[in-house]
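Worked example (supplementary).
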Amino acid sequence: MMNRIEDEDDHVPKDHPRYQSLKYRHKIIEGMKNLIVAEAGLIAHGRGECFDYILGEQSNDIARNAMKAAVALMLISEKPVISVNGNTAVLVPEELVELSNELSAPLEINLFYRKEGRVEAITSVLKKAGAKQILGTDESKMVEIQELSSNRRIVDPEGIKIADVVFVPLEDGDRTEALKKLGRKVIAVDLNPISRTAIWADITIVDNIIRVLPEMIKIAKKLKGMNKTELKKIVDEFNNQKNIKDTLDLIKHYIETQKEVAFNILNK
Amino acid sequence: MMNRIEDEDDHVPKDHPRYQSLKYRHKIIEGMKNLIVAEAGLIAHGRGECFDYILGEQSNDIARNAMKAAVALMLISEKPVISVNGNTAVLVPEELVELSNELSAPLEINLFYRKEGRVEAITSVLKKAGAKQILGTDESKMVEIQELSSNRRIVDPEGIKIADVVFVPLEDGDRTEALKKLGRKVIAVDLNPISRTAIWADITIVDNIIRVLPEMIKIAKKLKGMNKTELKKIVDEFNNQKNIKDTLDLIKHYIETQKEVAFNILNK
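After joint prediction of all chains, the assembly is encoded as:
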């Protein structure tokens, strides 16, 4: 009578209402088995699922506004870098490579949970997705940023060490704070609108990374035609605190609607 | 320069603001390594962390009201059963045993993610915590409930199969619905107030299992002195839909306060 259904997410029908969510959950679990994702990365993914849930699991104009400012900021910056961890590598590898190309912003592997073989596993995922150059892979060259005590302090001398803008999808609060104190501009993707990362970042995109990267690629293709003055105007007009407060209002509104909607399933 | 910090939760100082949360996160990860917890259980734990976060990570009177009704219902029921999965077994093993004793409600291991050796691993955890009798462990005796297609359908003929009330902490929606359709009363502990489990259950405790079980043990010691009429009154006066709606209001209120509070860290 025993049967294993650990891998049942493989067989979730495409019309299942939670198909997308289950598909990415499966990718994260497989990522852990393949050493790419840390155990704590599974828990972090769950936290993200919940916050996405109370955003209605869809992108909104407030998030898109932040994405536009993020792309503009990266386009006018001198040395933008895209920081990659295990979760982003399994969730959106091709999109990371495409965004990196569109914005001429190199990918740098930067991990909180280091483990023998993890950098190599992530490198392999990114190369398979088409990445030509990946920073953060040559241990002999790495340097430290003193403001940070976690493994995140170990950075590439050609990447985060000298970057003016760091794009940090799925980030921990300590590093965002450290990068800010080092004078970097930080762009974060964080489904928790009141995490330390969300609060500290210059531009916080409160949305699911799997929807954010494709959208940012589209925006990058559009904004690349603009001149620096126009791009700078987009950045200057963006107000992160207002954006986060608007997101909190959106969540409140969603929860209010659920007071009526949630019980409809009982009458089906 | 490589150093492993996967196990750093072990060394989190007790005055760390997130000490409790990190301690239980560590237990869940260890539980997975010891086969007790499913991979998907880590993701589920993360979802719980997030919902707990927007409840301010503390119990409230609305949840305590549901706990009181839950204890009362179990005390007046003929055959109450406490369903145990991997996450509950690693998070609150001693408390499960104590509540089981207080309420004369047997523990039954019932899993969504079955895997060779998992029932045995959970049995061992519960026995170490003092459990004398554990249902759901003898494969040769198990029967199925037809309303359910997942592994959750495999139940003990002396437990969930004949129970009138099933206490299901950390539950999946399908089973709650199936148990309801079979005429069982269901008591759920679910940090997501609008999950299918939360909506379908007769009594939904929207709170963290690590706070709920100790509180329910206390309540059980108190209510055991009451007669059936008094207990039935507590149950009858409880309104689950109202309770859930009040919880949603509480979350809205918490989010509203965060619009001001969250940015205070920038001024520190």
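Two points are worth noting when inspecting this output. The CA atoms of residues 22 and 169 of chain A lie 21 Å apart. The first strand of chain A starts at residue 80 and ends at 84.
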